[in-house]
Design a protein that fits this description.
By secondary structure, this protein is of the alpha/beta class. Helices cover 54% and strands 7% of the residues. The strands form 2 sheets. It has a 5-stranded parallel sheet, sandwiched between helices. α4 runs antiparallel to α5.
Length: 655
């Protein structure tokens, strides 16, 4: 039976890797039904749950995996990562300490520890919330059971002792943040007279710590509600208004957040943290000059404020003031040399200013930052240092980020192949056919992390984004390499024939957004309405290359401009990348923002025009499309995208 169980599990793993998560989930569940303590099945089930956004549900699987096999480092890493994602920072710290006590060590654990430390340094700064901490008061649950404490709180409320009732509910929520009875009881006290405003400026430390806990756990609505209640008693507490501002920002209520920070500053004009936090909210609104003023005020008050220098650097970089941004990051690092976020963000400013070696060196800090999501792989074999001879040696190059990144960095793979005895590339499964044909001297395989610490088929390894760092002179001499992707010639002919049935060219492919469109990433894209000057060009056959959520955009173009963009319904734009590359090679031109689309089209040698932010993180040697026929059309943050599309339209009208 065990052999059959393992067969089922391996089928689940393969389906999971290929993106068929529902079937994979069913197979993992079947394995766990027979063998509930199966460690890798529990771990895989947890990983799957995280991938589909069910992080809370993942915890029980990670716990089962660790109970069955605590010697596997990846089980600890996945569990701690999930706790951090849920903002259960104290639990994450405790588990990390437990793992270390059992001998766990390595870059993965160092990265998680850095992430934890950075979370604790976020705007609220829970551990530093009061300037003069008072001894922690005992919690009601230290002496009473939960039901007894609930009953006592209700009794005190009926007796009119509302303040005492409120304290009991807050004690309960400090230990059980999701307790509905305590939450409802506290809400029931809101609006009732809870006594006169306190003469003390700030609430007691235990109440502030309760708010900090709610904030760190992501319970922003409840934190905000409790802060508002406390403000009626402590109307002169700058700390409470700072907490309100942080919670409101987390909820996306940026105007209200700035207003709360201003109230904090009206009470305490030398409150550096409030200025810094307000700057972050202003920057998110796009008010860069106001944000910079706020950061500078924070620094005038607290000259050794590394986080304010870091945020100042971010705002200056967004304005395109690269040298000033680099100076700000360097000041942050002078105060805090191991500040991973400052190293990482400075890499983009350095790369965009042409300082390649410094920028690529700084980019190596990516593994230690909270914002870098790609997991680092761990092998027994050493990381290649760029100096050790690879003659007669085997090297594994492994992808670490998205499909587009893999394509960009593969453009320089031949530099490594020329030095090594044998080169293995592990990449996303859907890229294997295209990259195998494009690099016949490389053994191209889908990613497989299941045996990382047991493998003996290579001598050195290298993450893909570190490749450029070891070949700067060669890359500098040849900034625009020849086409490096080789589509299937038969499929290219098929697509050329298919296009001819649509009428005359030129045939122009378009793609307008990413499948990941968060608030920060959205700055790098425009609305479709701003494509007007391009989409209304006469005698152009537009071809859809949009791989995510295309239907709504195609309908909008039809309704707004009366233009039909032809879509090949049988082509899976997201998964069948070998076929997408063939279609791209059949086109005359492509216009696309910085997704995987222009990476493919540029790589096959098709004329590719990219609208982009002049100083965006994706507009540099590491993040932009590369090929013989790439044109970038840049804009500053304050300029409209419509100007860029006007220039692109002028170019395409000459085809």
């Amino acid at each position: 039976m065990l052999d059959l169980v393992e067969d089922i599990f391996q089928q689940g793993v393969q389906l999971h890797k290929s993106g068929k998560v529902e079937i994979a989930c069913q197979l993992y569940s079947a394995v766990l039904k027979v063998h509930p303590e199966h460690p890798t099945a529990n771990h895989s089930m947890g990983v799957l749950a995280v991938e589909v956004g069910k992080v809370q549900e993942a915890l029980v699987f990670f716990e089962a995996a660790l109970e069955a096999n605590p010697a596997t480092a990846q089980f600890w890493l996945s569990y701690i990562d999930a706790l951090i994602k849920l903002e259960k920072l104290a639990d994450a710290k405790a588990v990390l300490d437990q793992a270390k006590s059992k001998g766990a060590k390595g870059d993965g654990f160092d990265t998680l520890e850095t992430r934890l430390n950075e979370r604790y340094e976020e705007p609220l700064e829970a551990s530093k919330i009061a300037s003069e901490p008072t001894p922690k008061k005992p919690n009601i649950l230290d002496s009473l059971k939960l039901d007894q404490a609930i009953s006592l709180a209700k009794k005190k409320a009926k007796e009119g002792s509302l303040e005492e009732s409120k304290r009991i509910y807050q004690d309960i929520l400090a230990k059980f943040p999701k307790n509905k009875r305590a939450s409802d009881g506290l809400k029931g006290l809101t609006g009732k007279t809870v006594g006169k405003a306190s003469k003390d400026q700030n609430p007691p430390q235990d109440q502030l710590q309760s708010l900090a806990t709610l904030y760190s756990q992501g319970q922003l609505h409840l934190a905000l509600k409790q802060a508002e209640t406390l403000v009626t008693q402590f109307p002169h507490s700058a700390i409470l208004f700072n907490i309100q501002g942080a919670a409101l920002k987390g909820l996306g209520q940026l105007d209200q957040s700035v207003a709360a920070y201003n109230k904090a500053l009206a009470i305490k004009p030398d409150y550096a943290k409030a200025y810094n936090n307000m700057g972050v909210a202003l920057q998110e609104q796009g008010k860069l000059e106001e944000a910079i003023k706020a950061y500078n005020k924070a620094l005038a008050i607290k000259s050794d404020y590394a986080e304010a220098y870091y945020n100042l650097g971010n705002a200056l970089q967004e304005q395109g003031k690269l040298e000033e941004a680099i100076e700000a990051y360097n000041k942050a690092l002078a105060i805090k040399p191991d500040y991973a976020g400052a190293h990482y963000n400075s890499s983009f400013a350095l790369l965009n200013s042409g300082r390649l070696k410094e920028g690529l060196d700084a980019y190596e800090w990516r593994w230690k930052t909270a914002q870098f999501k790609s997991p680092r792989r761990h092998f027994l074999q050493p990381l290649w240092d760029g100096k050790t001879s690879l003659q007669d040696q085997r090297i594994l190059v492994w992808c670490e980020q998205g499909v587009g990144d893999t394509i960009i960095w593969s453009s320089r793979l031949s530099l490594l192949v020329s030095q090594a005895g044998h080169c293995i590339l592990e990449c996303q499964k859907k890229l294997v056919p295209l990259l195998s044909r494009s690099f016949p001297n490389v053994e191209v395989k889908p990613v497989d992390v299941s045996r990382d610490t047991e493998r003996d088929d290579f001598d050195f390894h290298l993450p893909m984004a570190s490749l450029y760092r070891h070949f700067i002179p060669e890359i500098t001499r040849s900034p625009k390499p020849d086409a490096f992707l080789m589509p299937d010639p038969g499929r290219v002919k098929f697509w050329k024939d298919s296009l001819s049935f649509l009428g005359g060219g030129p045939y122009v492919g378009i793609s307008w957004k990413s499948s990941l469109m968060g608030a920060e990433r959205s700055k790098h894209f425009s609305s479709l309405s701003e494509w007007s000057s391009l989409l209304t060009l006469p005698n152009i056959n537009f071809i859809n290359l949009q791989y995510a959520d295309a239907a709504d955009g195609l309908l909008q173009i039809q309704n707004e401009f009366g233009v039909k963009v032809h879509n090949f319904d049988d082509l899976d734009q997201y998964n069948d990348l070998d076929n997408v590359a063939a279609l791209s090679a059949a086109l005359d031109c492509v216009v696309s923002f910085g997704t995987s689309v222009p990476m493919i089209t540029a790589g096959v040698g098709t004329l590719t025009k990219c609208p982009c932010l002049a100083n965006g993180n994706y507009n540099n040697i590491l993040g932009g499309p590369i090929g013989p026929l790439v044109d970038k059309f840049e804009k500053n943050t304050s300029e409209p995208w419509s100007n860029v599309f006007g220039l692109i339209a002028d170019d395409i009208s000459k085809l």
